[in-house]
């Protein structure tokens, strides 16, 4: 189990673009955190600091209280696995099964353990039937699920998913939701970047809102999507999910999910 | 009119078609949404409607024809087709040229290739960037764009070509809610100026906002078609793997619990 901490982290790309400024973030082991915010607000840059793909130009990144400045990226990758937004950037094997097995194999897991985690991961995302096919013989959306399965199988204590629901249909959304749920149940830390407010509100315990490289809001779905947060959300061009907007309009309080909304309205109808 | 009449299509190297007997019309100024589960044929339909399949990627129309204003698109040179119908791919990374040094250049490439005079190229590029609200990205290197920014830049590059018909494969897949709203507005504005748009999307909330008509694909066949409100409210939609718009989802949940669905209508 690993506690992740960012202390006053700032990052400037070599071309001078400032992507992060004074970011303080502490993620407890086993937490589920969604990071939301506009395109270009620094979300992907932030998560790349968690496993050393990027190094802060200011501030510190800590794993379990230890500064990661001197640690190699390969060592950090055994703690934090990242599934990138574009699956094409990480997929290279000729067989789906081999793609998923690569990560755990490189981490030195036993063949039995690799086989078990590969089967489990493929089953979770519904790719068992096509395990022996080439990753490029399945469509983009399933390739995306393959990238998620590959990170799942690494059994890292922390899993970072960059836009896991992009391009998913209703069934794909349920599969991504199930994968995240399984990770959370297993006590692994899950950090996901997403633009899908429904997915975010229904799936994650904590939501961090980024705005121009800074953290603008940080709290539960009920807090972040509550009416008094709307001005801040509006400044980052985020619209709360429909049940949150309906709940506020009907004076039901903060109801960020369908379930919260339906319960609140049922309670009021009953009284 | 962009018209597919009884079109079946198979990819090169495959024995069986993946689209079957598709008939679909897209009029100037009309926005038609395409929904369906993953791998139901939406992307293939986009490729075929734009003429890229079989024109560029090969394969074969095993039945039917695709025509624009009565002229079949099959066999026509791609540079000529590109002035009549544009296509935006799902993944912007596959579409950015990788040769442009800035976003401005990237967007200007298309009009430049058409051989337009410089002032016209510049005017079109500026207008396209403004339409999508990304003027501030003009000097940015395309490789330094986020996924969502890349998607907006690809769309701007298509707008700058000003084709009468535009086919978009999940144009908002990587966009934040604001980007999605901007694309929705841009689509509406384009339709007002007479562009016909075919838009494959999973975001039924967006389609409910911008489309007059929606078609549903299932395993390569067109299984439903009609006014957006009717198609997206059809209970059969979920059977095709398509999530209904949020408002309809909540309405149904209220009805299922014996509560008044009126509260979600405003």
List the keywords.
heterodimer, A: 271 residues, alpha/beta, 6-stranded mixed beta sheet, 4-stranded antiparallel beta sheet, 11 helices, 10 strands, globular, B: 266 residues, 10 helices, 23% strand
Topology:
The complex is a heterodimer of chains A (271) and B (266).
Chain A: E1 4-12, E2 18-27, E3 32-37, H1 43-50, E4 58-63, E5 66-67, H2 73-77, E6 80-83, H3 96-106, H4 111-124, H5 140-153, E7 158-162, H6 170-185, E8 189-193, H7 197-203, E9 206-211, E10 214-219, H8 221-224, H9 230-235, H10 242-249, H11 258-270
Parallel strand pairs in A: 3-8, 3-9, 6-7, 7-8
Antiparallel strand pairs in A: 1-2, 1-4, 4-5, 9-10
Chain B: E1 2-10, E2 19-26, E3 31-36, H1 42-50, H2 52-55, E4 60-68, E5 71-72, H3 78-81, E6 85-88, H4 103-113, H5 118-131, H6 147-161, E7 165-169, H7 177-192, E8 196-200, H8 204-210, E9 213-218, E10 221-227, H9 228-233, H10 246-256
Parallel strand pairs in B: 3-8, 3-9, 6-7, 7-8
Antiparallel strand pairs in B: 1-2, 1-4, 4-5, 9-10
């Amino acid at each position: 189990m690993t506690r992740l901490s960012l202390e006053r982290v700032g990052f400037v790309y070599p071309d001078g673009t400032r992507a992060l400024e004074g970011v303080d973030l502490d993620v407890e082991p086993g937490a589920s955190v969604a990071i939301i915010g506009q395109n270009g607000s620094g979300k992907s840059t932030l998560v790349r600091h968690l496993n050393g793909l990027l190094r802060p130009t200011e501030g510190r990144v800590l794993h379990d209280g230890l500064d990661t400045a001197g640690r190699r990226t390969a060592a950090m990758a055994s703690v934090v696995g990242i599934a990138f937004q574009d699956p094409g950037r990480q997929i290279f094997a000729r067989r789906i099964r081999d793609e998923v097995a690569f990560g755990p194999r490189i981490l030195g897991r036993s063949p039995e353990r690799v086989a078990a985690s590969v089967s489990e991961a493929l089953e979770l995302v519904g790719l068992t039937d096509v395990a022996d096919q080439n990753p490029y013989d399945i469509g983009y959306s399933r390739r995306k699920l393959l990238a998620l399965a590959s990170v799942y199988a690494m059994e890292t204590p922390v899993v970072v998913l960059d836009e896991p629901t992009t391009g998913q249909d209703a069934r794909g959304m349920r599969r991504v939701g199930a994968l995240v749920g399984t990770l959370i149940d297993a006590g692994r830390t899950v950090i996901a970047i997403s633009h899908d407010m429904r997915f975010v509100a229904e799936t994650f315990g904590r939501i961090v809102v980024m705005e121009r490289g800074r953290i603008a809001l940080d709290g539960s779905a009920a807090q972040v999507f509550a009416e008094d947060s709307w001005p801040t959300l509006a400044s980052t061009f985020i619209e709360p999910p429909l049940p949150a907007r309906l709940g506020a309009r009907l004076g039901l309080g903060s109801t960020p999910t369908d379930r919260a909304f339906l319960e609140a309205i049922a309670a009021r109808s009953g009284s | 009119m962009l018209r597919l009449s009884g079109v079946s299509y198979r990819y090169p190297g495959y024995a069986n078609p993946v689209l079957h007997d598709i008939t679909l019309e897209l009029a100037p100024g009309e926005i038609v949404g395409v929904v369906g589960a993953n791998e139901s044929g939406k992307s293939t339909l986009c490729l075929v409607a734009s003429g890229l399949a079989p024109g560029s990627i090969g394969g074969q129309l095993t039945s039917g024809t695709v025509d624009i204003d009565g002229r079949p698109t099959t066999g026509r040179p791609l540079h000529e087709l590109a002035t009549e119908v544009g296509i935006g791919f799902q993944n912007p990374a596959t579409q950015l040229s990788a040769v442009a040094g800035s976003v401005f250049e990237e967007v200007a490439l298309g009009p430049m290739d058409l051989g337009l005079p410089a002032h016209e190229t510049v005017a079109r590029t500026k207008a396209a960037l403004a339409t999508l609200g990304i003027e501030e990205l003009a000097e940015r290197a395309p490789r330094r764009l986020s996924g969502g920014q890349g998607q907006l830049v690809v769309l701007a590059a298509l707008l700058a070509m000003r084709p009468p018909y535009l086919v978009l494969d999940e144009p908002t897949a990587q966009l934040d809610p604001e980007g999605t709203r901007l694309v929705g507005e841009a689509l509406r504005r384009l339709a007002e100026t007479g562009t016909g748009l075919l838009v494959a999307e999973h975001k039924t909330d967006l389609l409910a906002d911008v489309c007059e008509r929606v078609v549903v694909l299932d395993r390569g066949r067109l299984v439903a078609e009609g006014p957006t409100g009717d198609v997206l409210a059809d209970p059969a939609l979920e059977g095709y793997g398509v999530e209904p718009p949020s408002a309809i989802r909540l309405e149904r949940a209220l009805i299922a619990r014996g509560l008044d669905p009126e509260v979600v209508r405003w």
